[in-house]
Amino acid sequence: MMLRYALRTVRHRKGGFLGAFLALMCAAALITACGTLLETGLRGTIGTERYAATPVVVSADQNVHRTTVKHKKGKTKTKHKAKPIAERAWLSENLTTRLGRVPGADRVIPELTFLAEPLTPTGTGTSTGGRTAYGHAWDSAALTPYALTTGTPPRAQDDLVIDRYLADRARLKPGDRFTVQSTQSPRTYRITGIAAPTGDGIRHQTSLFFSTAEARRLAAHPGQVTAIGVVPAAGTDTADLEAAVAKALRGTTAQVSTGDERGPVEFLDAAAARIKLVSMGGAMGGTSLLVAVLVVVGTFALSVQQRHRELALLRAIAATPGQIRKLLGREALLVGAAAGIAGALAGLPLGSWLHGRFVALGAVPATLQHTVSVFPLFAAVAATLIGAWAAARVSSRRIARIRPAEALAEAAAERGRPAWGRILAGLVLLAGGTVLVAVLSVLRTEPASTPVTFLAVVVLASSVALLGPLLVRAAAAVLGSPLRLTGPGGRLATANLRGNATRMASVVTPLTLLIGMTCTVLFVQPTLGHAARAQAREGTRADWVLTAEGPGVPAQAARQLRTDRDVATEVVRTTVRVGLDKYAAQGVSTAGLARTWDPDVTAGSLAELTHNTVAVSELAAGQLHLKPGSTLKLTLGDGTPATLTVAAVYAKGLGFGDLTMAHDMVARHVDNPLAATVLVSTARSQEELAAAVRKFPGVRVVPPATADSLQAERLQANAEVNYFAMGLVLAFTAIAVVNTLAMSVSERVREFALLRLAGATRRQVLRMLRTEALSVLLLATTLGSGIALAVLTAFSIGMTGSAAPAVTPLVYVTVVAAAGLLALVGTALPGRVALKARPVTVATARE
Q: Which of 246, 250, 526, 816 has the fewest CB atoms found within 10 Å of its own CB?
């Protein structure tokens, strides 16, 4: 019976349910899109390219491991955790001999993969169509396989074979001279041949092949190889060969990969991106879900309020509270099912587009293939159904519990005060948000503070949603006198703010959330970036800085500038693990370091920084309980363990990283040993320094201020990924703002008609709507700005030690102006439509 009535209600009140349908559909689309990103991170395939003709690949373990054993109540529990390292781990070349004796192995092919970027005379990378260039020894061409189509293999140290793709794009042929920036100084090679892979499976990389001796020199890992390919003999099954290879490697940390498992070995960046995508998809999905719940509850509350008279009549003709709840619940499920299915289907192309944008921004490599299954769709539909049903239950709680006579009375006039339960819940959420802000002020790491930051915004906005009617009445009391001075429209707006506070509060909530969330998203990264740059500026004592347009500054360029009077400090950056925890680290040249670099040492001395010591930031020292003289065990970027003595503790960890070691200590254990920057202390002029490094393409000599501006551009480029990730949540919130405003105005058709019949002109009614919208905007701006300011201040205190977040006034004004535009458009357009009908017709029809 209730289902049939619910179907009739939805059919005959399509306009009333349209707002809820749109809110739920957008929520489902957003959840589906985030779900596909999360699934891509968990199950996304990393296709094999260079190892296509090699069924079995042996590689080094790319993780650090920790096993813990706990004894509790006579039971022993063993937990094993693994975290990926930042750089490529290498294998001992001696394993090649061992694998050559494996039964069923026809060929054993050692592989070297290293940095090798083509350069033009200006230093910029030769166009490779977005493909990453890698260097290899010609001996490993059989892994794909590559075959010469023109010319001869590389034999001399200055010989080079390039692939067909690069040759066609750069218009190169055998005999041409070609400059490559690898791990050493740039070198010009003579192209001896052009090779092409079998098939068209190579789509994400460009290969440059060197002679074996030159490849070993450039790889700079004597006695080690990147991987080893094992090709089975005729008639040998791949599974049998895999088992035999695994047996031969027993007792080593080497790993055996076959099939799709070879992809992560070949593309380490794609394997690392999985974790990033899981984190990004989870964060976006979680925030989207919280925002969706808040928006949908508000939308349903407004929908139920619009039907208050109808529901009151049902109560008056003996409908029980249970029947009212069932009716609204089934209506919500019907709308939720339709919206969930439509939104889930729309979320699939949205997720694919999102993945493509992340690839274009460099956050996700193209080798990590977008994965889609039915699970995100089912999750989105389920979340939509549950959200709609819960929203309907919450919204119907008041109308279902009160007596029929009271229901009719409340249908005629809005209740003067919100229910005590609503007020209490709002105060609890306000207290919870305050606690989150307090916790945020003591969090000092970005991975810990970021989720708390956005959760605090949503919780505080939820408290605004519950306490909204009281806040609207308080605003009406404050704004009443100024609004009356604006004429009849202002007086009508004041009366509506006071008499329909609950309806106005439903509009304030999404606007508050939009302003608060947008300001938080836009100013979190600048707050952190500005503090880091300020520390770096204060700690840089160099007169000039060397930067590079390519992969980095070669060590030879720094050596060119070192003299008895001049200091050149190379800075190489990486990431290390202490236990399973990740820390940003760097290697610096120690000679004359005090003349170029000052991280504000608070304990110990940088003069003690050697190959066996390390300097740590105050944050790392506090987390790891370190002081000068302490022993620190860590895992370097390529998985090599190291035990170092703490030489110094410094304050400027944001600007200079958490751990600092000697340059050579770090450079031997990273994929790119080129310096990110070189700090130069000298009396020579910029022109003299530029002349000294002229033979290094792309290397520039700039003042520290210019280097700081370049760093700001890089930070901005990295922040764009976060802006884009949260942009969809903000777009959903903006849609919710317009949707809620349109629902709120469309309900008032009879009110507008009565005003017209009482003598108000069409222009006066529209002016009243604009005044109401601006009043609501002022309240939402105050609340949203207050929430954002509290959260950003706490974030700044925790992360930078300063209570001054980086807020750009022009950006803030743009956010408020955009919110105001949405409010005015969302009010004016529905208002004009509502005023088109003749007042007498509307008043008679509604009677």
A: 250
